[in-house]
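Complex 238.
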Amino acid sequence: MDVSVSGPFIGSMSVQAEFDEWAADDRDRGMERKHWHTAKDALAKMPVEAGETVLDLGTGSGYALRALRETREIGRGIGIDGSPEMVRNAREYTDDDRVSFVHGDFHRLPLADDSVDHFWSMEAFYYAREPLAVLREIERVLESGGTFFCGVNFFEESETTHEWQESIGVEMQLWDRKRYREAFREAGLYVSSQETIPDEETEIPPVEAFPTDSWESREAMVDRYRTWGTLLTVGVAP
Ligand SMILES: C[S@@+](CC[C@H](N)C(=O)[O-])C[C@H]1O[C@@H](n2cnc3c(N)ncnc32)[C@H](O)[C@@H]1O
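Predicted structure with S-adenosylmethionine bound:
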């Protein structure tokens, strides 16, 4: 499929300021390592076929598209990110000319109607200023039968994540599972599945090690990683 990407893009200044700093600090690679624990299971469920086009919203280091190219032979991967520094880094991590990274805002996708086979987004959707507008953009650009795989670690039921907002300079949408399903439907997508994927890889120390620098109690850490992990909501375009 031929997808033309055009610019220029003007993203949110707070997204740019916040995540340019993360990229400069190497936190793009840090997120990649942590998010991979559950992202790999979600990616394995995507019904992508060889040759198809996948768009990654808030791509960060671009690891999801690199993995889909290497293991699933997608024809084209396009990563959009509001941080020019993230985009610069993501370009450096691959020399695959079937994967491209673009500075942009996922509220206004520079793509034609029905031009993308699947969308992926990990730990980025809740930064949307207008999440419903983003979902409508996805619905517009997705081919009929195409999917949107939306993974988030910050959500209402995962209570230990709520404090993240205090240390991040971008407003975050704290939705519960039902709100995700309702919003997908409001934007015209079917919800084909919703589940939580536990993170079984983050090491949780024995009870006597608590409190640690990051965690008050072992119980809280278990809640964050093993009980909740990543909320994956899958939408399908009609
Ligand atoms: C927490 S990082 C996650 C990166 C990557 N998906 C991962 O799993 O490691 C969120 C990313 O979303 C991007 N982002 C946030 N709001 C955005 C927007 N409105 N448009 C495009 N990118 C956005 C940020 O710049 C950042 O790189």
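The CA atoms of residues 76 and 98 lie 5 Å apart.
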